[in-house]
Specification:
Blueprint lengths: L4 H7 E12 L38 H13 L3 E2 L6 E4 L9 E4 L6 E10 L2 E14 L3 E5 L11 E5 L6 E7 L9 H19 L11 E11 L9 E6 L2 H20 L7 E5 L6 E6 L9 E2 L10 H9 L5 H11 L4 H9 L3 H9 L4 H9 L1 H9 L10 H12 L5 H12 L5 H8 L7 H14 L1 H8 L6 H11 L6 H12 L1
The protein binds zinc ion (ZN).
Zinc ion binds next to loops.
C-alpha cells in the first residue's frame, strides 16, 4: 500500500534530525602527520599511527581543535572548557585500530542553533552537539555487479582517509515543520554547508564525501503528544537527496502505520536512482561500542582567551551576508535565493566591488553568463571571465561605447579567450559608431533606397522610421546606437 505525501501529512506529524559528518580541511590527519590530499594513490598517505600499529601513539592536531571550535562558535554553541576523547570499539576492515577515537559524553561544543530561511520564513534548528573524531579508511568491493560486498570476488582497502579529522554536527529533533519538513532539512544542510565554506574549515564537497548526512525521520499521529520511532537513513550525499529521503520516509512510515504495523528502529539506505530507502541493519541489534576515555591522549582544555580570539576571527557568516546584501542591493528574498541558487553571489559581489551597479552585475551573471555556464555544464564561478571584466563591459555600456548586443559579443569573446574587454573591442572594432557623419552616410543611403517609407514618415507615421533604423543597423553591422539613428533620421526628414 502506498500513501501519498500530502495525505500522510493530514494525519501524521513528522520530526526529523540530521547528523552531518564533515572532513576538516587540515593539511595533516587528526592524530598523526600524514597528509590528507584527496585522490592520492591508495595507501600512500599512512604511517604507524593511522595504521594502528602496536606501540604507536596519537597526538592531537591543534588546527583540528581550532576548526571545531570555529564551527561550534558559528553555530552558537557553548565550548567545553575541558573534554576527553573516547575509544569507540568495533571491528571493521576499514578501521585498522579496531577502535575509532571519537568524542562520546564529552563533546567539544554543545547546545547551539542555526537559523534557516525557507519560503521567506525562518526556522531555528537546534544543535545538540559538535564533536571531533577520525575518519575511517575506504573499502572497494571488486567483481560484483553492485559495488557492494554481496557478490564481490574480493575487497580492497585504502587507508589514506583513515585518521582524517572528522567533525560530526548533530541537530536536536526538529518538530513542527509539517509539510515543509523535507525542504527545511535540505535548507539546513545548505545553510550548514555555506557556514562551513565561509569558515574555510572544509571543502564541503558532498560528491567527494567530505560532507555526508545521516537523516533521522519519525512520524506520529497528530495530537498524540508523543514522537514516533525514528529511522536513520545513512550516507545521503546530495542536498536534493536529503529532501527526498525525508519525503520518502514520511510516506513509507505512514503506510506502515496505516497498515497497523509498527515502524522498526533501524538504519536504512537511500537509493539515488529510485529516491526510496531500503532496510539496513536493525538498531535493536546495534552493538555495544564499549566506550571508554582514550588513555593515550591528554584531555583537551581550550583556553578561554584562545576561544575568544577564535570568536573574534570569525568571518561574516552567510546569514549576516544575506541580510547585508538584501539591504544594500535592494533585493527581495526571492532575488537573493535566485542569486544563491545560481552560485553567483561571490561573482556578483565582486563585480559590484569592481564598479558595476548591483542591477547590471545581476543581469550579466544571471543572464548571459548563467546561460553559458549551463550550456557548458560548469558553475558560473568557473567561467573564464573575471568579475572585473564583467564590470568593465558594464561600464562600456554605461558610457555608450557598447550597446547590449555588442556587449554580449564582447562577453562571448572574453569567454573564448580573446583577451580583456578593451582588447576585444579594439581587435574586433566592436565599439558603437558614435561619429554622426559616418551614420549620416548610412542614413542617406537608407532614405534613398526607401522613398515609400520616407513618404509615410512625412505623412506623420513616425513609427515607420523603424524600417530605416533597421536598414542603418544592418549597414553598420549592429554597431550604431539605435536611438541616436532614429533621432538623426527624423532630423534629416524634418
Ligand atoms: Zn598517519
Amino acid at each position: 500500500m502506498t500513501v501519498m505525501y500530502e495525505e500522510a501529512l493530514q494525519r501524521y506529524e513528522p520530526v526529523f534530525g540530521l547528523e552531518t559528518h564533515v572532513e576538516l580541511g587540515t593539511v595533516t590527519k587528526m592524530f598523526c602527520g600524514c597528509v590528507t590530499t584527496f585522490g592520492a594513490e591508495p595507501n600512500t598517505q599512512t604511517c604507524p599511527v593511522c595504521l594502528g600499529l602496536p606501540g604507536s601513539l596519537p597526538v592531537v592536531n591543534e588546527r583540528a581543535i581550532e576548526y571545531t571550535i570555529k564551527i561550534g562558535l558559528a553555530l552558537n554553541c557553548s565550548i567545553a572548557t575541558w573534554c576527553r576523547f573516547a575509544r569507540k570499539n568495533y571491528f571493521y576492515p576499514d578501521m585498522p585500530k579496531n577502535f575509532q577515537i571519537s568524542q562520546y559524553d564529552e563533546p567539544l561544543c554543545t547546545d547551539g542553533y542555526l537559523d534557516v530561511a525557507v519560503g521567506g520564513k525562518t526556522v531555528r534548528v537546534g544543535i545538540e552537539r559538535v564533536h571531533l573524531e577520525e575518519d575511517t579508511g575506504k573499502s572497494l568491493h571488486v567483481g560484483g555487479a553492485t559495488g557492494r560486498i554481496q557478490g564481490a570476488e574480493y575487497s580492497l582497502v585504502d587507508y589514506n582517509r583513515a585518521g582524517i579529522p572528522l567533525v560530526e554536527i548533530v541537530t536536536k529533533p526538529v518538530p513542527g515543520t509539517r509539510y515543509l519538513a523535507p525542504e527545511v532539512a535540505k535548507a539546513y544542510v545548505t545553510e550548514l554547508r555555506d557556514v562551513l565554506r565561509s569558515l574555510d574549515v572544509s571543502d564541503v564537497r558532498m560528491e567527494e564525501g567530505s560532507m555526508r548526512c545521516d537523516v533521522n525521520t519519525s512520524i506520529s499521529l497528530i495530537g498524540s503528544g508523543t514522537w514516533g520511532t525514528r529511522t536513520e537513513t545513512k550516507n545521503v550525499n546530495s542536498l536534493r537527496s536529503v529532501e527526498r529521503a525525508v519525503h520518502s520516509e514520511i510516506e513509507r512510515q505512514a503506510a506502515v502505520l496505516d497498515a497497523g504495523n509498527r515502524v522498526i528502529q533501524e538504519t536504512r539506505h537511500f537509493h539515488e536512482d529510485t529516491g526510496v530507502t531500503t532496510s539496513g541493519r536493525s538498531k535493536e541489534e546495534a552493538q555495544d561500542y564499549r566506550y571508554f576515555p582514550e588513555p593515550d591522549l591528554v584531555p583537551v582544555a581550550p583556553d578561554a582567551d584562545w576561544v575568544e580570539s577564535i570568536r573574534a576571527s570569525l568571518p561574516e557568516l552567510p546569514s549576516a551576508r544575506r541580510a547585508r546584501l538584501i539591504e544594500s542591493w535592494s533585493l527581495t528574498e526571492l532575488d537573493f535565493e535566485a542569486l544563491r541558487n545560481a552560485g553567483a553571489l561571490d561573482a556578483v559581489e565582486a563585480t559590484v566591488a569592481a564598479g558595476a551597479s548591483p542591477a547590471d552585475a545581476r543581469k550579466w551573471w544571471l543572464g548571459e553568463l548563467a546561460r553559458r555556464a549551463n550550456d557548458s555544464g560548469t558553475e558560473v564561478s568557473d567561467l573564464p571571465i573575471t568579475p572585473a571584466a564583467v564590470a568593465r563591459v558594464s561600464a562600456l555600456v554605461a558610457a555608450g561605447t557598447l550597446n547590449d548586443r555588442l556587449a554580449r559579443q564582447v562577453i562571448e569573446a572574453v569567454l573564448d579567450g580573446e583577451g580583456t574587454p578593451d582588447e576585444v573591442v579594439a581587435a574586433r572594432g566592436l565599439a558603437v559608431v558614435s561619429d554622426d557623419s559616418a551614420l549620416l552616410a548610412a542614413i542617406d543611403e537608407a532614405i534613398a533606397a526607401n522613398q515609400d517609407v520616407v513618404a509615410r514618415i512625412r505623412d506623420g507615421k513616425v513609427q515607420a522610421a523603424g524600417v530605416l533604423v533597421g536598414a542603418v543597423m544592418r549597414a553598420t553591422r549592429g554597431k550604431a546606437d539605435a536611438a541616436r539613428v532614429k533621432d538623426l533620421i527624423l532630423e534629416r526628414l524634418a
